[in-house]
Amino acid sequence: MSLGSVVQKVVEGVTPQNAQRKAVGQAVRIVLERFEASASSSTVKPVIKVGGSFAHDTWLPEDTDVDFFMLYPPTIERGRFEEMGLSLAEEALAPYAPRKRYAEHPYIEAQLDGVTINAVPCYMVSQGQWKSAADRSPFHTEYLKGHLTATLKAQVRVLKKFLKAQGLYGAEIKVMGFSGYACEVLILKYGSFENLLRAAADWRKGEIISVEGGEEKAKVLFRDAPFILLDPVDTTRNLGSAVSPQNLAEFVYLARCVLREPSVSFFESAYLKPVDRAPKHVRNHTVLLRFGYRERSEDILWGELRKTASGLASHLEKDGVQVMRYCVAAEGGRASIAFLVAPERLPQVVERRGPEIFLEDATERFLSSARAAGGSWWLGEDFKSRALQVSAHFSPTALIVEYMKNPVGRVGFAKGLAEDAAETYSVVMGEKAYRSRNAVDQEALRRLAGYRFS
Is the dihedral of CA 208, 211, 216, 222 positive or negative? Predict the structure, then answer.
């Protein structure tokens, strides 16, 4: 089956039918009326605009979201503007169980007849005069309405369907993938899903993608960024910054796979599948830290979890443990961080490397710390101070137990999670980790060993 035939088949499945359009349109009218009613009694009445994939007509039938932007005068102070907007949204969406969420900015989310409603306060400003992270969004809607043809909208839907199936859709920190707007900009740039895949198959690190110019300035602004997708409404903003290096790498690899062997299956389930059962050499080198947490916004939770996992991995490395990778999972008040490490047992003697001797204060701090730990020290051929000390912790699990005595101070454990984790954590290694029947533990472990070869 050719890629063109595959894409056409997918287009048929992702195009909303008239009945679906009518149902979503009705939900939008109801919510808009409620916003107008609530805003009429406000001290400062915002302008209400509909945006997001519904307004762009790139929404998927099985996953519909509609953004409502509350535009306030730029003279209102930032804290008051957010408070007014969120309060208005909670009132307007009261019948639909509204809840506060966080992205680059706080917003209110609710559900109505299967439609996700996102209510976002922003300022009514001129283009380029941004005062809040959401101010560009109404401009995105106007830009896309003027540039997306019916053919391009269908191609955006195909791309979204593909990314959802492969677990790469969504800019939120839990996913760190491609946002809906990024999808729209990519299709605008390349003209079709197939053209995008052909381009992506040849992308290089630091690739700059732009619809409205700005490449030269981007080279300076985003010098070290692995992927640069410029916002056509604001070419000083990199839409690609939300995409993790791993997800970018997977997209490039998957693009090559689809081009090599096109199939509708790429739009139905993940092509990259974890190994069915972790081999013994993986199980023996697995450390699993699990702990409970009090419920909080998913966006905040995943930011704290990623910060914590990164801090733990970094300090394990400093203490002689090679961390090959780590995976995080969380749901329903339980979090798990799985590490793939080497060695299983740490050497009794550990070499610590300090700063160059020319950095006087840093050298003195390093030697003071080394003196307190015992052992000996010397200066190397690279001008750096070294200290030899006897390790009191012979395993990665023992190190983590030691870290948990002061998790924030020792390893930069997210402060918001530290108190919960200190009271509830447990850490196991090897086969003991894989005996857990907890779904969250299993999710972290399932991904740790990597993908199986097709």
Answer: negative
Count of helix runs (H) and strand runs (E) in the chain: 18, 15
Residue bearing tokens 């040849």: 202
- Give the C-alpha separation, 74 to 148, whole Å: 30
Shortest CA distance to 400 belongs to which of 289, 308, 283? 289
- Neighbour-count burial for 304-332, b at 16+ CB within 10 Å, e otherwise: bbbbbbebbbebbeebbbebeebbbbbee
114: tokens are 């299967």
> Please, which pLDDT band fits residue 94 given cuts at 50, 70 and 90?
very high
Which CATH number, 3.30.460.10, 3.40.50.620, 3.40.50.300, 3.90.1150.10, labels domain 16-144? 3.30.460.10
Taking the whole predicted model, whether its pTM rises above 0.70 is answered as yes
In this structure, the number of other CB atoms found within 10 A of the CB of residue 79 comes to 8
Residue type, 73: P
**CA-closest candidate to residue 92, choices 76, 70, 114, 73:** 70
441: nearest Cα among 285, 303, 328, 309? 328
Q: 280-346+392-448: what CATH class?
A: alpha beta
